[in-house]
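seq:
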Amino acid sequence: MTERRLSQIESPPEVEDETLKRRPARRKRVVPPSEVELIRESPLEKAAREAKLVAEKTMHNAMLLIQSHERARKGRIHGADGIRKKKK
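struct:
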């Protein structure tokens, strides 16, 4: 088997450029502007929504705090068990 240099290898004809030139440009569909219905909420509804979001965030933070304390407690228990086993 003989080795070929890059200059000896024939390159394929550049077909890609020609096909890209021949392709017609895609037409964008013109969508007529529709009437957008604005949602209006009363100040009472807005306050209720914001209060609900604050309550959800508070509950989420409380769950994270409980989980981290539980992990720390279990870590201390396992660490204490490991120390007791080493002393025996």
